[in-house]
Amino acid sequence: MHASEQKSLIDAAIETYYDEIRSAVSRRGASSSQATEIVHDLYIALSGKPRALDGARSIKAFLIKAAINLGIDRGRRAAFEARLFAALDAQAIEIPADRTDITNLLDRPRRLACLRAAILELPPQCRTVFVAHRLGSVTKEEIATALGIQRRMVDRHLRKALLHCLDRMDEFDSE
Questions:
Q1: What is the pLDDT of residues 51-69, one digit of tens each?
Q2: In this predicted model, what pLDDT tens digit does every residue of 73-82 receive, in sequence order?
Q3: For residue 168, which of 108, 119, 130, 95 has the smallest C-alpha distance?
């Protein structure tokens, strides 16, 4: 028998015995939708192996047994995954939530207002350097050239601004 004839035989057999195969799988504990999926998976598996029915004395019995075995394999896999994920869930539950992230998220508008106030408290040239570099992505060399100051002075302004902002944010966090 050629491969195309075998495929036609598989098609005809699944179509003919479809309801009986589904019923047999359902009797073994599969739901109606699971039984349908199992028969579909069986058809796909057999379509990829056209000679699978060679030597089968009863095509109907072969298909029912193959579908039941496929259902058993699915059940074992589902049980294994349930045990695996239950263990992972138990481990995940033991990890404490980071409450500071939630607090920071809820306080974001107030934190931004505090940062804005800290920036406004800076001396004018220090504020200009900080805003240009941190918010405007202007290089230190470009800032030094534009303001007519040395690169070292730009670094000092940045350090002073960062420390001032950090101090203000620490004060905010300790409130």
A1: 777 777 888 999 999 999 9
A2: 998 988 887 8
A3: 119
From-to residues of CATH 1.10.10.10 in the chain: 100-172
Measured in degrees and rounded to the nearest 5, phi and psi for residue 94 equal: -75, -15
Burial of 170 (0-12, 13-18, 19+ CB in 10 A): exposed
The pLDDT value recorded for residue 107 is: 80
Architecture category of domain 100-172 in CATH: Orthogonal Bundle (1.10)
The separation between CA 64 and the C-alpha centre of its own chain, rounded to angstroms, equals 38
Q: Residues 36, 25: contact at Cβ < 8 Å? A: no
Give the pair of three-digit tokens for residue 124: 């004018």
Per-residue tokens: 115 = 């940062």
Query: Are 50 and 6 spatial neighbours (Cβ–Cβ below 8 Å)?
Result: yes
Quick check: 119 and 168 in contact, CB under 8 A? no
Q: Where in the chain is the domain with CATH 1.10.1740.10?
A: 1-92
- The CATH number assigned to the domain with range 1-92 reads 1.10.1740.10
The pLDDT value given to residue 47:
85
118 near 168, Cβ under 8 Å? yes
